[in-house]
Design brief:
By secondary structure, the chain is mainly beta. About 10% of the residues lie in helices and about 40% in strands.
C-alpha cells in the first residue's frame, strides 16, 4: 500500500509543478560514468575524481575522435562524468567509457561522505548540501528510509530539475536531479525544495532555499589568505587540502569556521601553510537551518601531458583566460574564459584537425599560473618481474599507475626518482605484467615547487 501511495504522490507532485517541456530527442544518448568507486577518505572526493578523469582523458579523446562520443563533461564534486554519445554509438565506444544510462545508478557507485561543511551543533532537522554548478546534492539527518521528493527551479520559477528517492538506513542520501537539460546545474538564484515523508508516506516537512552567490576572488601565497564574496552574516566552514609530495605520501587538511561579515566580503587565513598550485579549497555557507552550499577552487596551476595535444589551466571561474604553448619554437596562444568548473583548456593541432603532440622541453604559460617546462617521463615494463622502470625529474615523488584494461582496474605505486632521474615501481604483489595482456601505464607527476602537473599515458598490448 505504501508503494501505491508513493507512486500516486509522485504523480500528484509532478502535476503540481510547472511541466518540464518535452525536448526533442538528442542526436544520441547520454551515459553517466562514476569516476571514483573506491575512495581514499584522506583525499577530497573532487581531487580523486579529477585525477581519475585525467587518467581516462586519452580514452575519451580517442572515442571522440572516432565519432563514438560527441562530448563529455565532468562533475568533480559529485565524482561523475556525463558523456554524450553519437546516435547508436554507445555500444561502439570502448567498454571503459560506456557509462550507465541512469545518473542515479552511477551516483550510487560513488562512495560519498558528508562534506566537512559548517559546524552544526544540536541540529535536529535534515541538512541538504550542494556544490554550486553541480547537478547533485547530499542530505543527512533524514528519517531512516524516508522518501524525498525535490525540485530545482530557475530564476523565473520554471522547474528545471526533479528528484525522487529514499534515504538509507542511516538517514543519508547522495544523488542528483533529473534535469530537463544536460547542462542544468545548481546556480545562484535557483530555488531548491525538498519534501520529506517517512516510510509510510507520512509528511515530515518541506524544506527550501535559494542558491546563494559564492565567489573566490583572490589568494595570496605569501600570507596564505583566500578571499571572496558571499551572503552576509552567514555561518561558514572552509577547508584547504595540501599534499606534501613526500616519501610518506602525506597531506594536510586545514579547517576553519566562522561567520561571513556584514559586508559580504570574506577572508580565510590558513596561517603558515604556503599555498602550492593545485591545493584544493572549499567554502561551505549555511543558507538556512537546513541548507548549506559550497564553492570549490584550485590554487591556479597548469596540466599539460607530454605525448598528448592537451593543456588545461585552473583559475577563477568566468574570468578571461589565456594559454600559450611554445612547441618547436612556435608559440600557439588560446584565449577564452574559465568555465564553471574553474578551468580553461586548449587542444593543439595543425589547423586541419591533426593533433600536434607535446613533448618534453615544450614551454607553457597561462593566466595566473607559473610558466612550465614539460618534463621527460617514461615507463618501461619488465614482464619477468612485473616492475616498471623509467625516467622522471630527479629526486621527486610521484605516482606510477598500471591499468588492467581487461578488468578495467587501476593499480598505483608511490614512487621516487634518484639523483639521475631513474625510478622503479614494483607491481608484483598486485598483478602480473604480461606482453600478451593489454595494459596502460600512466606516470602522474606534480612539480613540488609550482604544483604544475604532467601525466604520461603509454599503452601496450599484444
Amino acid at each position: 500500500m505504501a508503494k501505491v501511495a508513493r507512486f500516486l504522490l509522485g504523480l500528484i507532485f509532478l502535476f503540481t509543478l510547472f511541466v518540464i517541456p518535452v525536448q526533442a530527442q538528442a542526436a544520441g544518448e547520454t551515459g553517466f560514468l562514476p569516476l571514483v568507486t573506491q575512495a581514499d577518505p584522506a583525499v577530497p572526493l573532487a581531487v580523486q575524481a579529477h585525477q581519475a578523469f585525467d587518467r581516462l582523458l586519452p580514452d575519451l579523446l580517442a572515442a571522440q575522435s572516432s565519432g563514438a562520443i560527441l562530448s563529455f563533461k565532468p562533475d568533480f564534486s559529485a565524482g561523475l562524468l556525463r558523456i554524450a554519445y553519437a546516435p547508436g554509438a554507445r555500444g561502439l565506444a570502448p567498454a571503459r567509457v560506456q557509462g550507465l544510462a541512469s545518473i542515479h545508478a552511477a551516483m550510487a557507485l560513488v562512495p560519498h561522505a558528508q562534506p566537512a561543511g559548517v559546524q552544526r551543533w544540536n541540529s535536529i532537522t535534515p541538512t541538504f548540501s550542494a556544490f554550486l554548478y553541480s547537478s547533485c546534492f547530499s542530505a543527512s539527518l533524514l528519517a531512516v528510509s524516508s522518501h524525498v521528493i525535490g525540485s530545482l527551479r530557475d530564476t523565473t520559477g520554471h522547474v528545471v530539475g526533479t528528484y525522487a528517492g529514499d534515504a538509507d538506513s542511516s538517514g543519508m542520501l547522495s544523488d542528483c536531479f533529473d534535469t530537463s537539460s544536460d547542462i542544468t546545474q545548481i546556480v545562484p538564484g535557483y530555488k531548491m525544495t525538498f519534501t520529506v515523508y517517512d516510510s509510510t508516506m507520512l509528511w515530515l516537512g518541506t524544506f527550501s532555499a535559494f542558491v546563494p552567490r559564492i565567489a573566490i576572488t583572490s589568494f595570496n601565497k605569501t600570507t596564505s589568505v583566500v578571499t571572496g564574496l558571499g551572503p552576509k552574516n552567514k555561518a561558514f566552514g572552509a577547508s584547504l587540502y595540501h599534499p606534501y609530495l613526500n616519501a610518506a605520501e602525506t597531506s594536510i587538511a586545514l579547517l576553519k569556521n566562522g561567520i561571513l561579515p556584514a559586508s559580504g566580503s570574506w577572508a580565510v587565513d590558513f596561517g603558515t601553510l604556503k599555498f602550492r598550485g593545485g591545493d584544493y579549497f572549499t567554502l561551505w555557507e549555511s543558507q538556512n537551518s537546513s541548507f548549506e552550499f559550497g564553492r570549490d577552487f584550485y590554487i591556479p596551476y597548469l596540466e599539460c601531458n607530454p605525448g598528448s595535444n592537451h593543456c588545461r589551466v585552473w583559475g577563477f571561474p568566468f574570468k578571461p583566460a589565456s594559454l600559450t604553448i611554445i612547441h618547436g619554437g612556435v608559440a600557439h596562444t588560446f584565449t577564452g574564459k574559465f568555465n564553471s568548473s574553474n578551468y580553461f583548456e586548449a587542444f593543439l593541432d595543425d589547423g586541419a584537425g591533426t593533433p600536434i603532440l607535446l613533448k618534453a622541453g615544450d614551454k607553457v604559460s597561462a593566466t595566473g599560473a607559473i610558466t612550465y617546462t614539460l618534463p621527460g617521463l617514461t615507463a618501461v615494463p619488465n614482464f619477468m618481474t612485473s616492475v616498471v622502470t623509467g625516467k622522471a625529474p630527479a629526486g621527486r615523488y610521484f605516482n606510477v599507475w598500471v591499468k588492467d584494461v581487461t578488468n578495467n582496474i587501476w593499480y598505483s605505486k608511490w614512487s621516487h626518482s634518484n639523483s639521475a632521474g631513474s625510478y622503479s615501481a614494483d607491481f608484483s604483489s598486485s598483478l602480473t605484467l604480461s606482453a600478451g595482456t593489454p595494459l596502460v601505464y600512466y606516470i602522474g607527476y606534480t612539480d613540488p615547487a609550482t604544483g604544475n602537473v604532467s601525466g604520461r599515458y603509454i599503452t601496450a598490448g599484444p
